[in-house]
């Protein structure tokens, strides 16, 4: 009965199949380029016009239908997975996928993405059915379909990335990054050790400071920057673009190269996270610091609790520990606590730490700016008006206002004396409502230092989040070897960073091709294979190659 009201073309199954293929093609093009979402319409329309002209699905000289299964079904499904990841996160990072599979994904707050994944899966099944029908009915598609399958496989960026990672096994020099790595060592410390308050703002990149593109969304952080050291140009290296990776980059001075096959059991969550390197928590704990971590989301997600427990932190407080302390238990979001609640509890934790003897450090992770739309707190809604549920700039402004209010509150109570406050984005944001504006130019991360000991100023740098570790150490008054720690260089020194010397492209290429640094990160994670080799007499020998001359590892003085 419904067919009576449809145009003649849409009464034919052929056009439903071709329409669905065209819509998927248009959506793929719009997702992987800078076309707006509505750009899928002209792409799909062009596909349908071409299909009509060439009589796809209804050849002028038809042949008997063949009940075959196209070779392209698997390649199409893999492309569907890639498009889903690109639509969800903007940039597909295979390292993030592998790490989360091994570190654990329980207690995540991405319920909306699960619903989206179900819809993607259903639409992909319809696409595969439509394409199978086309190949079976139209002999011309049967002729070229195997070549199409090969082209789809070769052109899938996800599989290309896997192939590049596999090339690390046979690369000529797989240890260039490892040779740049400098063990973090504190050579001297100030007489009075300062406290540290490290505030990660989820996805609140410094790119939002561009008022021409984003208005006043970043204004409250700019106001804080008037009395702080503000860094412009802190870029994002591969394997540092999600929360856990961003925290490891800034606290350990290395990208998070997933454990992969180095993991002792591929079917259980990681028992340790980057156990082979010393990070900020290890260095401060050795100096007698009392360390706390606080975040509104579960610490079981992505190995956050495992990381902080293994690197010197005394108290790890996530959703499970903080939610019972809420006055209104139902005031939570899908991830956990809203940031106004988290920051109230942060003030309580700072008070507790101040009552204890000795220096302290507190790391806090916000949730307000989380892609795709953010989780603006109730107090922001009361102040900013109604939230439409989509506009990420609303959430950016909320996050900036909340952290400014937190710092002013702590200052008013006198809780930040002899304290370095660090404000940093954990990583660049993933796909959000302002995505086209964000990717229209260069992007950089938020990195702000607040301290009575530091002269307020803006510094233009070419750096990465790996440079945050040595910069924070020197801002606290510690003396470190050659101003370096991990792969990072202190931005308060005159030493060139790896980004400045070699560029992002070189660093990212090395990350895809090397394994030596990965082995260092996860040293001791895999069980020993067989008996240890016999020891030989030690003979010191120094061999210098041309590859080492450009960035010779510094000496370590006792």
Automatic annotation (TrEMBL):
<dbReference type="InterPro" id="IPR000917">
    <property type="entry name" value="Sulfatase_N"/>
</dbReference>
<feature type="transmembrane region" description="Helical">
    <location>
        <begin position="147"/>
        <end position="163"/>
    </location>
</feature>
<feature type="transmembrane region" description="Helical">
    <location>
        <begin position="15"/>
        <end position="32"/>
    </location>
</feature>
<dbReference type="InterPro" id="IPR017850">
    <property type="entry name" value="Alkaline_phosphatase_core_sf"/>
</dbReference>
<dbReference type="InterPro" id="IPR050448">
    <property type="entry name" value="OpgB/LTA_synthase_biosynth"/>
</dbReference>
<feature type="domain" description="Sulfatase N-terminal">
    <location>
        <begin position="194"/>
        <end position="477"/>
    </location>
</feature>
<dbReference type="Pfam" id="PF00884">
    <property type="entry name" value="Sulfatase"/>
</dbReference>
<feature type="transmembrane region" description="Helical">
    <location>
        <begin position="114"/>
        <end position="135"/>
    </location>
</feature>
<dbReference type="GO" id="GO:0016740">
    <property type="term" value="F:transferase activity"/>
</dbReference>
<keyword id="KW-1133">Transmembrane helix</keyword>
<keyword id="KW-0808">Transferase</keyword>
<keyword id="KW-0472">Membrane</keyword>
<keyword id="KW-0812">Transmembrane</keyword>
<protein>
    <submittedName>
        <fullName>Phosphoglycerol transferase</fullName>
    </submittedName>
</protein>
<feature type="transmembrane region" description="Helical">
    <location>
        <begin position="68"/>
        <end position="85"/>
    </location>
</feature>
<keyword id="KW-1003">Cell membrane</keyword>
<feature type="region of interest" description="Disordered">
    <location>
        <begin position="524"/>
        <end position="558"/>
    </location>
</feature>
<dbReference type="GO" id="GO:0005886">
    <property type="term" value="C:plasma membrane"/>
</dbReference>
<feature type="transmembrane region" description="Helical">
    <location>
        <begin position="38"/>
        <end position="56"/>
    </location>
</feature>
């Amino acid at each position: 009965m419904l067919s009576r009201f449809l145009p003649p073309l849409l009464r034919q199954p052929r056009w439903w199949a071709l329409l669905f293929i065209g819509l998927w093609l248009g959506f793929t093009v719009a997702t992987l380029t800078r076309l707006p979402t509505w750009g899928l319409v002209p792409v799909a329309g062009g596909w349908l016009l071409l299909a009509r002209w060439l009589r796809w699905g209804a050849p002028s000289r038809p042949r008997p239908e063949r009940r075959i299964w196209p070779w392209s079904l698997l390649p199409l499904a893999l492309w569907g997975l890639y498009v889903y990841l690109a639509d969800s996160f903007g940039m597909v990072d295979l390292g993030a996928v592998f790490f989360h599979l091994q570190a654990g994904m329980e207690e995540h707050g991405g319920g909306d993405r699960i619903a989206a994944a179900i819809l993607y899966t259903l639409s992909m099944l319809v696409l595969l059915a439509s394409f199978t029908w086309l190949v079976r009915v139209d002999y011309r598609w049967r002729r070229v379909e195997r070549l199409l399958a090969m082209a789809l496989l070769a052109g899938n960026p996800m599989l290309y990335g896997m192939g590049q990672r596999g090339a690390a096994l046979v690369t000529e020099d797989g240890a260039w990054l490892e040779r740049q790595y400098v063990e973090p060592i504190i050579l001297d410390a100030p007489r009075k050790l300062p406290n540290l308050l490290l505030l990660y703002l989820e996805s609140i990149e410094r790119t939002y400071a561009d008022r021409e593109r984003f208005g006043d969304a970043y204004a409250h952080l700019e106001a804080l920057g008037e009395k702080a050291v503000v860094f412009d140009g802190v870029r994002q290296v591969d394997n540092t673009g999600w929360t856990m990776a961003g925290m490891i980059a800034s606290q350990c001075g290395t990208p998070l190269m997933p454990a992969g096959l180095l993991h002792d059991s591929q079917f259980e969550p990681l028992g340790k996270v980057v156990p082979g390197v010393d990070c900020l928590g290890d260095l401060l704990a050795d100096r007698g610091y009392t360390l706390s971590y606080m975040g509104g989301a579960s610490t079981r997600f992505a190995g956050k609790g495992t990381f902080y427990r293994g690197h010197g932190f005394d108290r790890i407080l996530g959703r499970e520990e903080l939610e019972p302390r809420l006055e209104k238990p139902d005031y939570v979001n899908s991830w956990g606590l809203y940031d106004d609640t988290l920051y109230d509890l942060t003030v309580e934790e700072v008070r507790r730490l101040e009552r204890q003897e000795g220096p302290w450090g507190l790391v806090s992770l916000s949730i307000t700016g989380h892609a795709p739309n953010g989780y603006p707190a109730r107090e922001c809604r009361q102040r900013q008006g109604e939230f439409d549920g989509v506009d990420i700039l609303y959430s950016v402004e909320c996050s900036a206002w909340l952290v400014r209010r937190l710092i002013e509150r702590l200052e008013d109570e006198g809780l930040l004396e002899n304290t370095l406050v660090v404000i940093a984005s954990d990583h660049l944001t993933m796909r959000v409502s302002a995505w086209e504006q964000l990717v229209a130019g260069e992007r950089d991360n938020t990195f702000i230092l607040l301290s009575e000991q530091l002269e307020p100023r803006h510094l233009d740098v070419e750096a990465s989040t790996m440079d945050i570790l040595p910069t924070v150490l020197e801002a606290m008054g510690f003396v470190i070897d050659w101003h370096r720690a991990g792969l990072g260089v202190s931005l308060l020194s005159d030493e060139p960073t790896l980004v400045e010397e070699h560029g992002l492209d070189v660093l990212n290429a090395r990350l895809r091709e090397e394994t030596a640094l990965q082995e260092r990160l996860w040293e001791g994670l895999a069980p020993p294979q067989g008996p240890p080799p016999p020891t030989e007499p030690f003979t010191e020998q120094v061999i210098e190659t041309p590859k080492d001359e450009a960035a010779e590892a510094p000496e370590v003085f006792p």
